[in-house]
User: What shape does this take?
Amino acid sequence: MMTYGTVARETRFLIGLTIAVIAPFGFLLYLFPSSAGDYWAWEIAQPRTAMLVGSIYFATSIYYVLLSRQREWLLLQSSLRSLFVVAVWLLVAAMFHWQSFFPYRLMTLIWLITYYLPLMSFPILNRLQAERGGNAEKPAGRQIIRGWRTWLILRAAIYGPTAILLFVFAPQVSAAWPWPIEPVNLRMFSGQIAVFGAYQALAMQDGFWQRIRLFMLCTAMLATAHLVGLLLSGTPYDSSAPVGALLPLMFVEWLATGLGMLWTHRK
Amino acid sequence: MYIQYGVGIISIAYVALGVLGFLPLDWINPFHHEGVGARYLFNLVAINGVHNLIHLAIGATGLWAMRRLDRSQWWGKVVGVVLLVVFAAGMVQAALEGFPGDQLLLGLVPLNSPGHTLHLTTSAVALYLGFARPSPA
Assistant: This one.
């Protein structure tokens, strides 16, 4: 039995609103990357950079549609926490690079609201869900296999510091990147590494598989979107650059971990 | 009660914004010479002394209101409407001035797009708290 309370109407509204915003973001950046400079909130010069940034919106819009179909708060809690983490990370990145933003583009206004809103609303929703959950029982069901738990912790120990170092040294890393990229975009991208590389180790909490099942599916979808983006965008790719081999390797690892966990926990 | 808790969360955030805004530290509030000449809180939200006092007033009244449910809901309604009006006025002024990097509302309060969106988002959350159905006791 799995009852941590059903999803409140307000939580569903936040998820619906998130889908309504990030789906167009993903659609535009991923499918029309060449003209990102004409519509996006900040400077993006290369189509591959637009796809790198847009992959997260593209994959998570599908993920949030799947989340919106869930009835148990337990299955959503970790995901909404990740939205909170992303919101903090990206707003801090925006603080460093406000001069790269186009202040009154519609995308800028929507983008800012997209990340202010989880910061204010998530603590309230968390409290609301706890109050309406009643006598919540501890979840029962499949536990994450011990080997996978260790692996999630190990990769968090690698990706967590990597994300922080990429954020801090974005200007230096941009010189080692396999295509010309602005530090603002590297700092935004470092948020993806923090959430999809490191955050899962925290999200698994009591080890209940259902907590992170959809999150791992999203990790695999995001990795696929990134790999397709690397292959299809027209920007030249310098594979001899220091990060040239590491980047696809990281996406392959995300894909393998996501699919591997889904496969081994399928029953 | 989540309504009082929510009012508390917003209030603490606004008190923090108000206090931090008064710190003359360039790494927190760098001064932007272009435009109206204002400090940007966290390099995002244009502020000055008056703006900081308004943030402090919103936060302090919220901390007072959060002790009772009826006061919390009144606070949500009032702050929600006031910030919605400030957002609308700010956007109209920005449109009339050709969407500059920042602006002075009523010649007193510096505003820019991170500030407008913060006001709109806070307004939406405050109005929700003002009209939300309390959890059963």
User: Anything to note?
Assistant: Chain A has one domain: 9-264. The interface with chain B takes residues 10, 91, 94-96, 98, 103-104, 108-109, 112-113, 116-117, 120-121, 123-124, 127-128, 131-132 of chain A (CB under 8 Å).
